[in-house]
Each structure stands twice: as C-alpha cells, then as structure tokens.
Design goal:
alpha+beta; about 35% helix; six-stranded mixed beta sheet; 16 strands; eight-stranded mixed beta sheet
Length: about 425
C-alpha cells in the first residue's frame, strides 16, 4: 500500500502532539522538596514519560485523567493540575505514586465493593501496570508502585438516588510488578498481584478472593453491562491536557456460559465430530480461501485442548514489509488485519450450533510481504477462543481485546498476554 504525504504529515503531527502533551502528567523534579525523591524524579524522568505516552494511546472504557486532586467533577478536571506521577514515600518505602480520576459510575445495587474495585483495576490500573518501563521494574532504588484511582458510585438513600466517589488504592511491591510483567499465564499474574495491598476508601479489601473473576475483561459480566455507565460529561471528552478521548461507552460485555461438562476427546469421538462437520468444512475452505489463505497441507481439523475440543484452522497471514517489529506487534497486527475478519465468515459457515465442540483455534503462520512459503523465520501464532465468546463477538457484544483476554494466545508455542493497542504501538513490555 502506498503511503501518501498527507497521511505521513498527519502521523507526524499526532506524534508531535503526543510528545508535547504526555510529559505534562509527570511532576517536575524541581517541585519535589524531598532531595532523594527529587533526584529519582530527575533520574527516571524519561521513563516516567513513557507511562503517560502509553496511557495517552490507550482507549479507556470511560474518561480517565491523571490528576493530583482526586474526587473532582469532570467539568473541573480538564483544567486541573494533571501532574500526578511522582516518587514518594509510603511506610518508609520509596514508591512511584500514580493518581487519577476515572469517570465511570457503578451501581451499588448491582456491584458490591469488591466488584467495583476489581472493575477499576481491570479498566485503569492493569493498563498502567502493563505500561511500566523495564528500567523502573529492575531498579533497587524503588520498592513499590502505588496507584490511587477514584471512580463514581450510584446508590439510593431512603429512595433518593445519589452519586458519590470511591478511591481504590493498589500498593504493589516492585518485585511483584516485575513478576506480573513477565507472567505467561493469568494464574501467574494473579499470584503476583496477590502480594500487594488493596484499599477501598482506606479500608483493606481483597480483589482476588475469587481469582477467576479478576483477570478476564468479560468476568462478572452478567451485571457489568447494567451496572456500569459513564458519568455525564460536562467537558468535551478531554482525557488529559486537551488530548482527545473517545466519548463512546463501553460495549456490552458477553456473559460467559457455565462451565461445560468434560468433553469426550477420545480418538473415536473426535473422528465422529470431524465426520459430521466435514462437508461444511470443505465448503468453508472453498468459499473463504481467498480471504483466509488456508494452509493446503493442514486442512481444518478438530483437536483436543484444555479438556475441550477445538476446531483448528491453519492459515497464512501476510503483513506488509513495513510491519516488522516484536513478535507481539506481529501477533496484534495479524489479529486486527486478518484473524478478526475471519471470525464472522467462519461462524456463518458453521451456523449449526450443535454444542459438540468448544471453540476455534486460528493457527496463523505470519510472514512479511516479501517472504515466500519456503522462507524461514515465520512467526507462528495461535489464537484460541471459546465458542461462546466468538458468538458474542459475532453479535458485536464484545471487543477483539475481550476475545484475547478470555482466550489463549500462543506465540511459537508459548502462551503470552497480548494487549492489542500496546503491542501495535510498541509499548508491550511482557516477554
């Protein structure tokens, strides 16, 4: 694809705007009175700016602002001091403190305190954790990270509706944050996060009493879509320092189905399912091959995975020559530019929902434009998604990131965590 001059100019302007706006959320070293904290602020200033740059490019479900003052109304937030990232002290420890206001509003009738804090963790704290630069995760000069994020709460008192503010605090040891960044599974992430302290309005709280509710963006979704609404915006959708922030409300999130009984994955059972779908699969390959680029020597087949049965579709994904980068960037681009566009046609080809398999494994061999089938170095990525989430995506009830979060992504055979926006913009730091 030929890149025109106006596109290049617009991209350059956007990058310049980001470069000038993002650092404003970092407190200037000269404003810190503690000599040790001031020295650290100066030493790691460039790394602190990377956090704000990553946040500026992240699409939060509702408006989020870095802020030195919590509990503000959104009409006052855009003009308030947003320099909230600084080194500070907490219980005789050196911490990196990040504060901000998240303009989501939760219903107390539909979400308890743990659910509300957990949702703010998923929406805001987790992306900020994922953006922490390696230098901050490795230095012994820092003992912990401290996040304090406010959100809004709707409740009724004597039948009268009112809205207030809650503050969620997460204190996570630096070594735990480093383990979180390197975690290759959700259970490893949960173990790292459980080493921290969580407070809601200064009261200790456990976010991970029910770990299965914590990591998936679709968790607890039976009530989230009803309980979570945006705070009415009096300002024109500004995220920070005038940078535009999407005013779109979060998409309704699909309700995960109850755990299915253990699937029969014996060879005879797999052969039976394969036979029952073979005609549909053959027709799908013929109809979709121009779009899907199926691998000829690996036709669609049902395979056992995690005590379930998944349809494996082996495809070749060709990305432009200029799409090089880390394997996470390649995986994210492969999903956005290829795999995501196959989901609805594939489901349409398998429109008979017989309940005899559990999901689809899109197994992609990623190559850059000039590579040939015989070239070595192709990146193998498997996107393994449960069928009920694929159906939700088909109906526009969840996002591509929701699919990623509730499924499995394997790169060259190793499971990874994948944040699509962070990976495509170069801020993915997990191995």
């Amino acid at each position: 694809m030929r890149v025109t001059k106006p596109i290049v100019e617009r991209a350059a302007i956007a990058l310049l705007a980001l470069a000038f706006s993002a650092p404003a959320q970092v407190l200037a070293p000269a404003e810190i009175s503690d000599p040790q904290m001031r020295e650290l602020q100066q030493k790691y200033l460039a790394d602190l700016k990377l956090i704000t740059q990553a946040a500026a490019m992240h699409s939060f479900p509702f408006h989020f602002y870095f802020s030195r003052t919590l509990d503000l109304q959104e009409k006052d937030q855009a003009s308030s001091d947003q320099r909230s990232i600084q080194f500070d002290r907490y219980k005789n420890q050196v911490v990196l403190k990040i504060t901000g206001n998240y303009f989501a509003s939760y219903s107390t009738e539909l979400m308890n305190s743990e659910d509300r804090a957990r949702q703010t963790y998923r929406d805001v704290m987790m992306p900020l954790l994922q953006s922490l630069p390696p230098a901050l995760l490795k230095t012994d000069e820092l003992q912990a990270f401290a996040f304090e994020i406010s959100h809004h709460v709707r409740k009724k008192v004597l039948g009268v509706s009112s809205e207030g503010v809650e503050n969620v605090v997460l204190i996570l040891p630096r070594v735990s944050a480093a383990r979180f960044a390197q975690a290759a599974s959700t259970s490893a992430q949960e173990a790292a996060l459980a080493e921290g302290e969580v407070f809601l309005n200064a009261a200790p709280l456990s976010l991970w009493a029910h770990p299965q509710q914590m990591t998936s963006s679709a968790s607890g979704a039976a009530f989230v879509a009803k309980a979570l609404t945006a705070t009415p915006a009096a300002s024109p959708g500004l995220m920070r320092d005038g940078a535009p922030q999407s005013t779109a409300k979060a998409a309704p999130i699909a309700t995960p189905s109850a755990p299915a009984p253990v699937r029969d994955t014996s060879p005879d059972a797999i052969r039976g399912v394969q036979k029952s779908y073979q005609e549909s699969l053959d027709r799908m390959v013929q109809d979709l091959n121009t779009q899907a680029h199926f691998v000829r020597y690996a036709p669609p087949a049902f395979i056992p995975f995690h005590k379930g049965l998944f349809l494996q579709l082996s495809v070749t994904t060709t990305l432009p020559d200029g799409a090089g980068g880390s394997q996470y960037r390649l995986a994210a681009l492969a999903f956005d530019q290829h795999i995501a566009h196959l989901i609805r046609p594939v489901l349409a080809a398998l429109k008979e929902d017989r309940g005899d398999f559990d999901g689809v494994n899109f197994s992609s061999s990623i190559r850059l434009g000039g590579a040939t089938a015989t070239d070595s170095g192709a990146t193998a990525v498997e996107f393994i998604f449960p069928l009920h989430m694929l159906r939700s995506y088909e109906q526009f009830d969840c996002t591509g990131q929701d699919l990623i979060d509730t499924g499995y992504v394997l790169i060259n055979g190793e499971r990874v965590s994948l944040n699509l926006q962070a990976a495509e913009t170069g801020f993915q730091i997990r191995p």
